[in-house]
Amino acid sequence: MESTSATGRRRNNTRVNAEDNALDQITKEAEARLAARRQARAEAREIRMRELERQQKEQEQNADRVFDMQNSSTSFGSDSISAHPARLILGGLLNITRATASRRSSEDSLEDEGRSLRDFKYELKDVEERFRKAMITNAQLDNDRASQTYEVKLLKDKCETMQEAFAQLQREFKEKTRDCNAIKRNLDRTSLELKLVQGQLSERDSLIAEQGLLIVAIENADGSDAKRALVSVENANVLASVQGSLDVRIQKFCDEKQQLLSEVQKLQKMIKEYKSEGIVRRGSSSPCPFVEFTVLFRRGSKQNHIRL
């Protein structure tokens, strides 16, 4: 089960790594496209700025030329006739004046004609002043229109940038949501594996208890790196009777075993000697050395068996 879960974890890690690599590649491509779009927009914005500046300069130059022409035309007086619309108006007014003067009676004086000419001159100047103001207003309106057009284009660029940023945020949100779902799946899988491991530990403890065994923790000589061992209850009691690390306890038990074996050998040798000499006293009131040695031999064997 542990190998199966490990294989599943490795497979899941491989799939998650592949998804991460794919997401990184998609993010890099999106960032490259976004950078290219931004660079293209910046170049187009710079071109539009130069075009708008050129148009604005041309409009200002045209307005200046019109203004200069107006000033120069007013300095020549009423006798000079040019192609300007104001001069055409003046010519029309003069023709009307001549026609009217021809229809007048011969009793009109030169003073009335001079007065009417002065009135026409004043009206002409008024018309020219209005025309000049209208041209200046028109140039200002053209400048305002150009600036408003530029602001509209800037707002469009800003709107496009915000839309791209919103799309980027949506992509990042989808990626974060995908990562969150993957983390949730890993958490659920880990919780299930934890429950399985806990069940296996409970089953192990129950089996150990059924077999009458115990898990003991044995430290090293320096008191570090405690290890666990599975022993019977009797062996656990024997281990508990001796202090120290596992190596120290085993060495002590070996020493005791060697000592007991040497005593057993001595007793066996003494028994053989008594048998060979025939020293067996039956019916004697004094205790028999053979019996005493036999009792000691049995006790030593029993103690040796218990400790081993």
Task: Please explain how this structure is put together.
- This protein has a two-stranded antiparallel ribbon with strand order 1-2.
- With 308 residues, the chain is mostly helical.
- The protein folds into two domains: 2-200, no CATH class; 227-307.
- It has helices spanning 2-75, 85-103, 110-210, 233-240, 246-277, 289-307, and strands spanning 213-218, 227-232.
- This is Leucine-rich repeat flightless-interacting protein 2 isoform X4.
- One of its GO terms (biological process) is regulation of DNA-templated transcription.
- Belongs to the LRRFIP family.
Radius of gyration: 60 Å
- Structurally, the number of domains stands at 2
Q: Tell me the β content.
A: under 5%
Percent helix range: over 70%
- Biggest sheet descriptor: 2 strands, antiparallel
Low-confidence stretches: 76-86, 282-287
The succession of helices and strands, N to C, reads HHHEEHHH
- Assign the structural class, choosing from mainly alpha, mainly beta, alpha/beta, alpha+beta, or little secondary structure: mainly alpha
Number of helices: 6
User: What's the arrangement of strands in the largest beta sheet?
Assistant: 1-2
Q: What is the general shape?
A: rod-shaped
- From the N-terminal CA to the C-terminal CA, the straight-line distance is 37 Å
Q: Strand tally, please?
A: 2
Average of the residue pLDDT scores = 71
Quick structural overview:
With 308 residues, this protein is mainly alpha-helical. It is built from six helices and two strands, in the order αααββααα. The model is unreliable at 76-86 and 282-287 (pLDDT under 50).
